[in-house]
Amino acid sequence: MTAELVRGQNHPLPQTRLEIRVSADAPLVAGATLGDENGTVRGADRVVHPGAPAFPGLEVPRQAAADHRLAVDLEALPADVHRVSVLLALPLQAGGPGRFAAVSAPVVAVTGLDGAGIASYTITGLDAESAVVALELYLRGGAWKVRAIGQGYAGGLAAMLLDQGLAEAHPLAATILDAVALGAARSVAAPPPRPSDEARVRAAAPGPGATDGGPGAAVPPPAPAQQPLTDGGPIDYAHPRRHSAPPAPAPTAPPAAPGEPARPVAGDATGWSMEERLYNQVWGMFEDLARTTAAYRSAVDFADSRREQELDRVLSDPRSRIGSTGDQARADASARREELVERAKEAFDRDLAQLTAESEVVEPALPPAFAGWENPVWHGYRVPMEIPMALRVGDLMLPERPGLRIPMLVRLPLERGLWIDSGRTSSEAATVTDPERLKRLALDTAVALAARMLAVYPAHEFAVHVVDPAGAAAGALAPLTGAGVLAAPPAAGAQGVAAVLGGLTERVDLLQMAARGGAGADALPPGMDTAEQLLIVNDFPHGFDDRAVNQLRYLADEGPSVGVHLLMVADREEASAYGPVLQPLWRALLRLTPVPGDHLADPWVGHAWTYEPPLVPPGSAVLGRVLGQVAEARRAWPR
């Protein structure tokens, strides 16, 4: 039975191999400090954090996430470690909460490797604090115990580390947040918080202060942490927004035969339109696949750990090390391990089969903005009159079932720019790809993404610019230049780079001043295009002087808030001469690869997902047809 702790309460630990599970409704940074018998942390090397996530006996997640699992083996810790303090902190990213009062109380649970609960603690009473010592594992009288701490720090990570006795607290805190920022650049952002159905109905009702019923800021309850399979029973991986009744009638599936799982149906999620339902359903599939895979992997880890413990007990007895007794013990331990894994695999396969069946009905129902280029929906394409909720920028897969592809949807307007990494170190597949071929694939990916954005925006609400200093991208850009959908011919040379960057920088300045002053569109200079702008940058940093580099960084940081977005094709190694100056630029962009690469992480459990770019199928004419319609609509639009 799990002990529910309150602040200051302790509880004995019945075993030394543990998991510490953290559940919250917002991404948190998780780490730990290792103290001696007096609780003193002797140096920065005794702080385990996303930038240094592994230490003998302890491993922590590499990035901020809403759910964490910290692996602890108390017997493997150095002999002078008597205290393990578990730390949580808000990542303090742009647009994220800056204090724990803005999020629901995090829950920290100590479990065995089989998921059996030992103790849990809900961290309440926090307000302006942005960092907290959640709990500590401590050695007393030869036995390990857990104590609920809940000590918060308004001064953040630095104040918390300083209180742990670390003189280098401030630079270490900066190092941790720097590692978290790099992890965020690799992470697929979770969908924005959405209000409950009841709140949306209230918002839609007439009366003072009524809104239009659109997405709001209320935070839905977090999905429960999943436990690994230990008894062969089913696990509920239901996404919190997938199966509750929507405010309008949703599609229903034919009744399933007795004993069979419910048949999937497209649009089986909450939402006020089919587009919104499909968006939530895709994100639900993404989360379900992440969580069921985490449960399966955890079950396999538990089976391996149990086998190792049984073998350790056998080998500790000299009489059992050799001969038939030892061989039989090894065989029995392996057989029990295989039995546990097989039971977990059966449950995992059931979940995968259900998700595969759901994918097979959802994919054909997706609108163009959510659909792959091979989807027949593009054959009936018409230029839209409204901006869609999101855009598909590729597919995501896990190695356990590479054939199950989850559409990677990002909200529109884009909240951060995109970076197509043309370097050979971008992924394992990139290392074996010819460098020139890789650069061409990167350009093809950029063109495909730009074409998708042009296709899903109304004709008058999106403009694309290109900076190609050496003119090396002429062939790859042919679909865009040939269709006549660019705002201007690709800019070449240093002067062309300066002109485009100068114009977009001035645009950002004007729009920000207008927004700060509360002015409307009529206050902008006459003839100024009010459409969102996308700048494709090829071959960076060639053709860029220091001023141009600073302008590019400015556009990456400030542009998205006023509708100016970057789509960069670049190899970071080629820009290494700038050193740390460009680190903020790379972090501000969502990194994608032109060939499959496992560099993206989900926001729930932090799996490394294989990303596949949204390239047009070889020999397909769909891109030309779609861009032709976009060009015709742009020409027909009254100026």
Tell me what the structure shows.
The protein is α+β, with helices and mostly antiparallel strands and 639 residues long. The protein has helices spanning 156-163, 169-185, 197-204, 274-315, 323-362, 428-431, 435-456, 478-483, 493-516, 546-558, 583-588, 622-636; strands at 3-5, 10-12, 17-35, 47-48, 54-55, 58-59, 65-73, 83-89, 107-112, 117-122, 131-140, 143-153, 390-397, 406-411, 417-421, 462-467, 532-540, 564-570, 589-592, 597-601, 608-612. The strands form three sheets. Strands 1, 2, 3, 4, 5, 6, 7, 8, 9, 10, 11 and 12 form a twelve-stranded mixed beta sheet that branches. The chain has a five-stranded parallel beta sheet with strand order 16-17-18-15-19, with helices on both faces. A four-stranded antiparallel beta sheet has the order 14-13-21-20. Strand 6 and strand 7 (65-73) form a beta hairpin. Helix 1 (156-163) packs across helix 2 (169-185) and helix 9 packs parallel to helix 10 (546-558). The protein is globular and about 85 Å long.
